[in-house]
Design a protein that fits this description.
single chain, alpha+beta, five-stranded antiparallel beta sheet, about 30% strand
């Protein structure tokens, strides 16, 4: 019983804490897979920007699944005895893992900015990127648009006139 109490005291805050985890939309954040990767960079000028709201889900984290499964199993193990306890523990683990996965993948709505950039190399071509509020770039400002092989893009300030 003491072990179960300790497991609950560890797993409950961990599972609840996962619900507050959010993927940031910062132009300064990169995925681990992007480190050391060469990106395609385009020069351009911002011709439009607008405030937007981003919501949805992010890829499931293993941490949420494992913590939820552990918590569900520990709690369900308190039910019944013998074979009934085993069935309850397995069922609790499955339900807990599913719930933990959903909690771990939830992305709270975030404010963001959508930038439309006219490319300097092809004035009739544009790129539109949505990113976080960490950089407040202005319409008319010269920028670089970085596009990774994974498709993740960032708009970053460039020199006053990179032409």
């Amino acid at each position: 019983m003491h072990k179960n109490l300790v497991a609950c005291l560890v797993c409950i805050p961990l599972t609840i804490g996962l619900s507050g985890c959010a993927t940031t939309l910062s132009s300064k954040d990169y995925l681990f897979e992007q480190a050391g990767e060469a990106m395609t960079t385009y020069k351009g000028v911002i011709i439009n920007k607008r405030d937007v709201r981003v919501s949805g889900t992010v890829p499931t984290t293993i941490l949420g699944t494992v913590a939820g499964g552990a918590l569900g199993g520990v709690l369900a193990n308190q039910i019944g005895g013998g074979v009934g306890r085993t069935v309850a523990t397995i069922g609790g683990s499955v339900v807990g893992a599913t719930a933990g996965s959903l909690i771990g993948s939830a992305l709270p709505a975030q404010k963001a900015i959508e930038y439309t950039v006219q490319l300097s190399s092809s004035p009739d071509k544009y790129l539109t990127v949505v990113q976080g509020l960490d950089q407040n770039l202005a319409v008319g400002q010269y920028v670089f648009v970085q596009v990774s092989k994974l498709g993740r893009s960032h708009v970053i300030p460039s020199a006053p006139n990179p032409e």
